[in-house]
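hiii so um. not sure if this is the right channel but i have a protein structure encoded as tokens and i wanna go backwards to a sequence. like what aa goes where. can anyone help
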């Protein structure tokens, strides 16, 4: 990969906006990860009652009027909050940017379920009379809604896409933004992933019917990836959106740079609706490494996808062992143990939770890992206590989803002397 500072194919992250179950800024989120603070709480959902969930508490009206929020969606509201926060953090000269040259590319697992469930519930009170059905239903439930709501809120007239990539979607948003910038289709991009999953009872009911929904009287210890006593998935909502731009543009304006995106991979298992496949996951990691011009030994931290389901944890462990072996200098961690599975937002939040490692040389832990499953034979998993690293130059982020979609993203530390935010 070119090392020239003038190379327009080099793409960097210059702004971050997020909301998570344990923090609404990157600083809050990172502090919670280092402190071992869980964001999982008891939650009530329709027809099922008590469940556990990762719940966000951001201010919905910081960037939206109440009228617009009523017309829109929770997914749109999360997206609007994160996009505005990212732009503020980026230092973009917003009033003078050509809004037709900004792209919005947001990953999501599913969309429209919340509104459909709510509206069916409402008309059930009126004998299923469709006259009381909301006239906002169609724009609320179209697949492009979350990214589209961002463009309306911010006056962006460039292209927007909401990318349906199951739980690989957070990485997919970044990947698509990188591609569009390299193609010259846009000059700036808002990318990432979002999830409103906890507001649909259907996702809880489906995981429960599969025997995959976690429960513990102590919500904070319910999500237990890699643990022999894993309890299953904790569903979470959240969002993480970043500003991306070409490196020469970022340097020209003296931007702070969080990281450079240097590699990515996407592929398909082509094997099963829900069961993961280690062979294809390992292939996806190798695709990303090849694109980045790296070997497995160059990676310092692997942010794992592990969801605390038996098959998922085991298959990813096989894939990571196949690619990385048992090299002791590698750190493998997991963010879902803190906040649950934020579905379409998971990959983006998990990446950003690790990016500050470039500055503090610390890999945050996987919490609730009391007895590692011997079938997840990864000696490098950081258990319960953060690990100080000799170096953090490259981070690899895994995100895998149903129907066998896999995504991997690799980011690199950008030197401080060239405008990087981290020393």
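sure thing!! here u go:
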């Amino acid at each position: 990969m070119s090392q020239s500072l003038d190379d327009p194919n080099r793409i960097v992250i210059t702004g971050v906006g997020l909301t998570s179950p344990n923090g609404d800024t990157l600083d809050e989120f990172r502090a919670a990860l280092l402190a071992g603070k869980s964001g999982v709480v008891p939650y009530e959902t329709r027809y099922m009652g008590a469940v556990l969930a990762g719940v966000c508490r951001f201010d919905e009206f910081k960037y939206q009027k109440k009228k617009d929020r009523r017309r829109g969606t929770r997914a749109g509201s999360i997206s609007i909050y994160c996009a505005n926060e990212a732009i503020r953090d980026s230092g973009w000269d917003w009033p003078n940017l050509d809004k037709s040259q900004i792209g919005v590319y947001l990953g999501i697992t599913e969309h429209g379920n919340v509104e459909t469930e709510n509206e069916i519930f409402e008309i059930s009170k009126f004998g299923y009379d469709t006259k009381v059905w909301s006239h906002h239903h169609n724009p609320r439930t179209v697949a492009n809604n979350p990214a589209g709501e961002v463009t309306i809120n911010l006056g962006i007239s460039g292209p927007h896409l909401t990318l349906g990539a199951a739980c690989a979607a957070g990485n997919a948003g970044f990947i698509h933004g990188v591609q569009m910038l390299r193609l010259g289709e846009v000059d700036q991009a808002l990318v990432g992933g979002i999830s409103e999953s906890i507001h649909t009872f259907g996702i809880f009911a489906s995981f429960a019917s599969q025997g995959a929904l976690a429960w513990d009287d102590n919500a904070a210890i319910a999500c237990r990836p890699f643990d022999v006593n894993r309890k299953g998935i904790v569903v979470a909502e959240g969002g993480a959106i970043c500003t991306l731009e070409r490196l020469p543009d970022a340097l020209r304006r003296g931007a702070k740079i969080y990281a450079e995106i240097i590699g990515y991979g996407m592929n398909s298992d082509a094997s099963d609706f829900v069961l993961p496949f280690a062979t294809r996951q390992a292939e996806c990691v190798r695709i990303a490494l090849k694109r980045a011009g790296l070997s497995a030994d160059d990676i310092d931290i692997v942010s794992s996808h592990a969801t605390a389901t038996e098959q998922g944890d085991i298959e990813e462990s096989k894939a990571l062992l196949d690619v990385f072996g048992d090299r002791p200098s590698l750190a493998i961690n997991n963010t879902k143990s803190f906040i649950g599975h934020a579905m379409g937002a998971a990959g983006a939040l998990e990446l950003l939770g690790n990016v500050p490692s470039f500055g503090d040389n610390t890999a945050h832990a996987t919490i609730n890992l009391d007895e590692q499953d011997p079938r997840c034979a990864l000696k490098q998993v950081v258990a319960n206590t953060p690990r100080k690293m000799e170096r953090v130059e490259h981070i690899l982020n895994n995100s895998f989803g149903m129907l066998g979609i896999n995504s991997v993203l690799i980011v690199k530390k950008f030197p401080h002397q060239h405008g990087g935010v981290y020393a």
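oh and The first strand starts at residue 11 and ends at 19.
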